[in-house]
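Entry type: protein chain
Record version: 2
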Amino acid sequence: MADTKKLFIKTYGCQMNVYDSERMAEALGVEAMGEAGYEQVSSPDKADMILLNTCHIREKAAEKVYSELGRLKGLKAKNPDLKIGVTGCVAQAEGEEIVRRQPAVDLVVGPQSYHRLPAMEAKVRSGDRALDTDFPQEDKFDHLKSRPKAKRGPTAFLTVQEGCDKFCAFCVVPYTRGAEVSRPVDRIIGEARDLVERGVREITLLGQNVNAYHGLDDAGDEASLADLIWKLNAVDGLERIRFTTSHPNDMDDALIEAHGTCEKLMPYLHLPVQAGSDRILKTMNRKHTAEDYIRLIERIRAARPDILISGDFIVGFPEESDQDFADTMALIEEVKYGQAFSFKYSTRPGTPAAEKPQIDPDVASDRLYRLQALLTQQQRDIQDAMVGHEVGVLFEKTGRLEGQLIGKSDHLHAVHVLAPSDMIGEIGRVKIVASEANSLKGELICD
């Protein structure tokens, strides 16, 4: 029997890319392809195939990929049999340009076509190049084999929806991931049960616009994200449910109610607003106002008073004035975020905002500094307020100190606790005794 080939995947960007990388590894794995399959390795130096699963959201994303390919070219010079592939959103956006700029690349595949990887792998092994950046008619999930039954960690991502129809002026997702598509309910439930059988206790439902989920149920009717959550709530062994990322315009009454009544739905919600200025929100094509967003947060907190709100902010959007920035800071002051992601605007070719007059980069940097200082203080205030409270913690791994475990609280705070290693994968009651820079310290409560 020939030695099993080695696969290295480097994943950039969002949680959906993490999920996609897992499925690509499974599609190319020994269990899926037999003796022709691959096993994953932790270093590109050991690999027979390297895949870069790329993200187009961050600044200069494509250039960072080309820089990485330049480094990998040296490995191929030493090992001519090495195959290099680019997958994900940069692959979708750049297509043939990737091969033109970096001839060492053998394979380019967009995020909607990774179920075709085994056939593409066979093609590149025969000496040809393979390029697939279509938006295929078939559902890629229909063509992927069932997930292998190997033991998993206690948490997992599960993609339920892809693509976006919102066309925010700054965003490339509609062009790289396509229109909104939702997976059928029964397939999601089946995959969730498989994950639970493998040791998963918490599932995070993923989608570019996950609360726009509208998959078909067994009767052929459209199910909402709230409907799906309630079905997952009935899965034995699944203890926690989360979802990300959401759009404010798709937070319907049923989903808000689920936050207050569904036992397994965790008290955490990532709900990006991007800006607090109505003028900028209109320019962004967000189709909601700052007041709409604030009133929505009030309704969510009325349903679940202890919920932790997370958000996204873009600073220095084209034509953003001092007053626009002040409006964003005022919204943050009012909402009070437990977590947030914030970025200085950078252009994405092909998006409407890229054609607008850009503001001074130094002004944008100063605004980002002030906004992040406010968000950091809010995050710390909310963490400090947890001291003395009891929380549930799902233990995920060992910590740096002897006898220490690390897990996530109900509110997604990282918590480190002295606890026996056999509690990994279990949910323990923990009293929070200290708040640190980006985590909480707790003590295990023993019955």
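Comment: The chain has a mean pLDDT of 91.
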